Amino acid sequence: MTTQRQREIWNTKVGLVFALAGNAVGLGNLLRFPTQAAQNGGGAFMIPYFVALILMGIPLMWVELAIGRRGGVHGYGTTPGMFGTLWKHPAARYLGAFGVLIPTGLVLYYTYIVSWCLGFSVFSAAGTYFGEVTREGMGTFLGGYLGTDRNPHFSGLGAAYFFFVVTVVLNVWILSRGVVRGLELLAKVAMPVLMALGLVLVARVLTLEPMAHGQSDWTVANGLGFIWNPDLSSLASAKVWLAAAGQVFFTLSLGFGAIQTYASYIRAKQDLALTGLATTAINETVEVIIGGTLAIPAAVVFFGLAGTREIAEGGAFSLGFMSLPVVFQQLPAGEFFGCLWFLLLFVAGITSSVAMSQPMMAFLQDEFEVSRRKAAVLVGVGMFVLSQPVLLFMKQGFLDELDYWIGTFGLVVMALVEIVLFAWVFGMDRAWEEITRGAQVKLPRLYYYVIKYVTPAFLLVILVVWGYQDAFGVLVMDGVPEAFRPYKWGARVLLLGLLAAIMFGVYRRWRGQPMEAEEHVHAD
Amino acid sequence: MTDGGLTFGGALFMGASWTAIVVLLVFCFARIRGRR
Question: Cβ contacts of residue A245 below 8 Å, gap of 6+?
């Protein structure tokens, strides 16, 4: 394309870092992290987690920022165009279609989960679930809300639909305001609010007194010990390493395609190295300091270590939506703290859901010249319509199937593809020049080799082991009841249909255009 | 995983991790604000 429309640019550096942090910080920091830590032995998890962060997370963040900024300079906001500038082969653009599919597929269920947080913040403030003083009772309450269980609180999916529509409309409104007046302004408001909410809750958890149930070891100190007492034997456990690496992926929003899109609105010679580090620092503050101090220590005080392990085995929703509401009911001003907890989740979630929606926005705006408002409405309507099976077939595992292929396996595949294209096809010398151009901090040369060898090897090992351990079983639906299989197939058909539509878009956009025509750089 | 409270090693690991994250955060924002 030789004529390019003016693309928006982030207004301030702080706004850019807050927006990227808002992109990265999400439900994964506050729900997934403590659950993964508890499932993988607490202190046994943290050492592999930090190693994965340093050897895989931070380098991949720089790679995605560099691919995105380079793409933006060429007028592309999504990976089909971006990959085409790295590898002069038509297949590159079709590989890039996955960078639009993944965030779009994720947003179909992520936005729904974010809407639960809004709903539960209202239910907490109103004391709606107060009286359900056991985890089983709260499980039934949540099941009633999601339509998977019958209870006196909900007669159908009305409440779930109400909060979902409010969340979708809020997303559309923010997206329609554009990068500076929408995404950047949201981040500048949301990140300080999120930090404040988090720190208030951390102070509350750290001052929790042991409850009067005669269990002297049900304390905050034991909860912190559970997470932090190091266990070096974990270094030999492949399962723990994989869980830690998977968490690093999810928490930094790597392999989504969303970081690249945000980076496409960065100026050509603006720093990436410090931006990536600052984004990681905010993300880790919310994850390790806030996320690591809230859910698990609070659960240990009320349920003990054995109970907390059992809760964690039930997954993130069991911890966040079923167990913590039981805790709030036993605290003075529990309505207030319950409301704060779910508001914290909602604020963290909404900054990520707009980020996941932005690649499709950019694809429509940059490649098909759709106006911003029209693109926002199209994304919102598409999000609402395509989410319907997620709402209606929750019990049959529709969401779980999408989450496995998109939110777990897809991320690793995408990350491996992009780092191979960037470090090996585009070339590591040029890649290093891209990453370090305009850098406000000097990156150790060691990272040249980490990005070229260590990170791809790390990703390849994860992919092979996951493929061997899980993916084949999930593919052939091992252990899935016969009655649920059509719904799981439905989720796959939805993803394949979405992929086909995006690939058709790629075909239409670049049909008959030689790769050489892409080198019309608009630097600023 | 241990059931005996926060050990000295655990407190050290937690303190070092928190300190490293906060120092990185302060360093990054000092540099960002300094060169805006």
Answer: A48, A52, A56, A458, A462
Residue A154 DSSP SS3: strand
| CA pair distance A243, A222, nearest whole angstrom | 23
Q: How far apart are CA A397 and CA A253, in angstroms?
A: 24
Which pLDDT tens digit goes with each residue over A385-423? 999 999 999 889 999 999 989 988 899 999 999 999 999
**What is the nearest CA distance from A504 to chain B, expressed in angstroms?**
42
pLDDT attached to residue A39: 87
Q: What is the ipTM of this complex?
A: 0.92
Integer Cα distance of A365 and A383 in angstroms: 17
Beta-bridge partner residues of A151:
A154
Distance CA A119, CA A86 (A): 44
How many Cβ atoms from other residues are within 10 Å of residue B12's Cβ? 13
How many whole angstroms separate alpha carbon A188 and alpha carbon A168?
21
Amino acid at A516: E
Angle at A403 between CA A397 and CA A407, to 5 degrees: 175
What is d(CA A14, CA B33) in angstroms, rounded to the nearest whole number?
A: 8
d(CA A260, CA A273): 14
- A428's tokens: 């590591």
Q: How much is the pTM?
A: 0.94
Q: Distance between CA A501 and CA A493 in Å, rounded?
A: 12
| Alpha carbon distance, N-terminus to C-terminus of chain A | 18
Contact of A233 with chain B, judged by CB distance below 8 Å, is answered with no
CA atoms within 13 A on the CB side of A197: 23
Q: Report the C-alpha gap between A36 and A287 in whole angstroms.
A: 12
- What is the band of A501 on the pLDDT scale with cuts at 50, 70, 90? very high
Residue with tokens 């429509």: A364
Distances (CA, A) of A253 to A44, A191, A271, A371: 23, 16, 20, 27
For testing contact with chain B, the best of A40, A58, A218, A229 (most B CBs within 10 A): A229
What count of other Cβ atoms lies within 10 Å of the Cβ of residue A515? 15
Residues in chain A: 524
Contact A229 B2 (CB under 8 A): yes
Q: Mutate which of B12, B19, B21 to test chain A, going by most A C-beta atoms within 10 A?
A: B21
A154 bridge partner residues: A151
Question: Tokens 């780092």 belong to which residue?
Answer: A419
Q: Which sign does the torsion angle of CA A330, A335, A336, A342 carry?
A: positive
Cβ burial A423-436 (10 Å sphere, 16+ → b, else e) = beebeeeebbebbb
* β strands within A67-137, DSSP E: none
